[in-house]
Predict the structure.
Amino acid sequence: MLKRNLYKLIFLFMYISAFSQKGTRVGYMDMNVILENVSEYNKANDLLDKNIENWKKEIELKKVQLRQYEEQLNIERILLTPELIKDREVEIQIFASEIISLQEKRFGPKGDMIVQRSKLIQPLQDQVLSVVKQIAEEKKYDFIFDRSSSLTMLYSAKNYDISDLVIKRINRQQRIQNRKNQIERLKSKSSSSNN
């Protein structure tokens, strides 16, 4: 019994010793740099920017309309009864609150801008994370940090930066997907022309 415990203890020390001698491999990447160098991200960002511009125009038109209602009321005020003035003021207040609601709907914390950004960007971020996981498994990294996140990285050597590798893999995956799409289009065209 004592001999068996002694063997277990020796084995445990050997295991701990071997494990502790293995160096921890750490890498980092910069998500912002990666996303800026992926064409799909740029397309998604451009689409979102166009939508934001349209929403701003929509809100600005409503504000112009509100100013016109206010000016019209000020011009007609001397001709209207106090009850009609009160009704118009209430209508103007309701219209102003609708503008505020529209602004909240478009640009609020749960607004269209946030929802669309997440819908457009999330698949790309998932793709990046998938590629990072593959690289980490292939290169046997223990940790990979995102330099662009709130994590403070005071110093990092360039040889641990895997951002370029991630960009290359994502671009390769996109080229492969584009080729597959082209082949599918050609197949569908040839099958439709044969019919």
Observations:
- Helices lie at 2-21, 31-36, 39-76, 82-107, 112-139, 163-194.
